[in-house]
Amino acid sequence: MKRKELKILGLSYSQTQIGSYVCVLTEKKGTIKIPLIIKANEAQRIALELEGIKPTRTLTHDTIKGICDSFDLDVQEVFIYALMEGVFYTRIVVSKGIDEMEIETTIGDALALSTIYKCPIYTTTDIIGSVGVKINDDGSFDSNDKDEDDFEDDDFEDDFDSFIDDGKKERVVSVEDLEILMQNAIDNEEYEIAAELRDRIQKLKNEE
């Protein structure tokens, strides 16, 4: 089974699936992108880690890391190994010295853990060939020998179009999306996280 390494290219609020986020992965050495939908709490943890914000209270993924640290376990990699009916099936590879084990997880949780552990993300060439999208210089996109109509969900295509149009941004998470995450934190009474995001947003705006 041939594999390719991916990295997180961008994270933005979904315009069509309320409460969800679009996470775009790209080949580490290549131009093919893979768009996928993740939950708000997963997007929040990814954004916090990418922005270098350390939560003042323990979040779910911090608890997982704490358990792993207690047993001297280390997350070595994320492997997106299958795609069926629009669901990305994902495992994390955990090691303890020479012993390794594979643990099934959701794609969003796996990506959040990859940012915490700074571990590589892999997928198969078959998945890249199936759903990978190549963005042209003019902003249009060609999916590998497929038409745009091959997207399973028109709304999802609109989300990806929005990301591209937004797009071409150097930041993985835009200031506007950080503001949405801040409002989500306020709505969920996560005031410490909201304050950290507020401070980060203000700093970014002052740098503009």
Task: Describe the model.
This protein is of the alpha+beta class and 208 residues long. It has one domain (3-70, 124-207). The protein is 40% helix and 31% strand. It has 7 helices and 9 strands, in the order βββααβββαβαββααα. The chain has helices at residues 40-50, 60-70, 107-117, 125-131, 154-166, 175-187, 191-207; strands at 3-13, 20-27, 32-39, 74-84, 87-96, 99-105, 121-124, 133-135, 141-143. It has a 9-stranded mixed β-sheet with strand order 6-5-4-7-1-2-3-8-9, sandwiched between helices. A hairpin with a 2-residue loop joins strand 4 (74-84) and strand 5. The chain is globular, with a radius of gyration of 17 Å. 30% of the residues are buried. Mean pLDDT is 84; it is low at 145-152.
Offer a concise description of the structure.
The chain has 7 helices and 9 strands.
Secondary structure elements and their pairing?
Elements: E1 3-13, E2 20-27, E3 32-39, H1 40-50, H2 60-70, E4 74-84, E5 87-96, E6 99-105, H3 107-117, E7 121-124, H4 125-131, E8 133-135, E9 141-143, H5 154-166, H6 175-187, H7 191-207
Parallel strand pairs: 4-7
Antiparallel strand pairs: 1-2, 1-7, 2-3, 3-8, 4-5, 5-6, 8-9
